[in-house]
Amino acid sequence: MPRLAATPALGLFPPIRKGAVDTLQFNIGRLCNQACRHCHVDSSPKRTGPEDNAPAGVVDGVLELLRRGPGLRTLDVTGGAPELNPHFRRLVAEARRLGRTVLVRHNLTVQFEPGQEDLPEFFAAQGVELFCSLPCYLEENVNAQRGRGVYDKSIAALRRLNAAGFGMPGRGLLLHLVYNPLGPALPPPQQVLEADYKRELRARFGLEFDRLVAITNQPIHRFREDLERQGRLDGYMSLLRENFNAATLPGLMCRNSVSVRWDGRLYDCDFNLVQDLPLRGPDGREWLLADLLASDASALQGLPIATDQHCFACTAGCGSSCGGALVA
Fold first, then answer.
1. What pLDDT shows up at residue 47?
2. What number does CATH give the domain 9-313?
């Protein structure tokens, strides 16, 4: 466990700035086939309107930005269940044609939605890197967090991904699993938990995957509301602040990425995106995708990053980002 630094004075998150931006994260919409208790985006099957999902024009703008910006080497597609946006497959295929690494945040059960049955084959053909939600290797814990029947569907979906080559040695198709704690607690050490997952999933189901990603629950939206109902929000916020670890600051995802929301607005990260803490450009204005298209991602380097209390979730203990723990 890393040595923890003292919580910043007055409980304020320390000022941080952007480095070189090489990752474009695109939240393509909040439509999802699940409504998980910990979801920071507040996604659900009810999010069907145009105000919650990227239209063709925003998708086209993202692709144009990738064409113009060779420094943007990675496209990280999230949601909702991003696959449910009608422009998702075109986005992935064109980004891969442009030579970009494409990451997809995949909830596994979306494979069983109408018209999505061939997702494993599509992902394999495009050579995407998958981050798949599986908050535990035990059925009871998964269903408690994500809904009844989700565990069985998730295992079936993982079998299909293994059959398509994902997570299998020598195939080059990366399959990562994503762990979230069940409640207001920090994740255990990622490497230890990964060993448990690999042992249990291999023994129980013969499943294989590449890496486990442990992500701390963000105290925003649905998870925050759950904590408030239980009277546990203040305790959880204290836990995050008391476990602040300065060693995590250089690796925060907000430092090398920019997030595009489904409506074309820009943010430092997906958490700021749902908190509506906008990215401000060099001119001090709230920037839109159109502003970035008129400039360049290099214009973001050195800009101050918008922060608030939820940022302590990313810097507690071993740290947390969309790529998992930040320090060993």
1. 78
2. 3.20.20
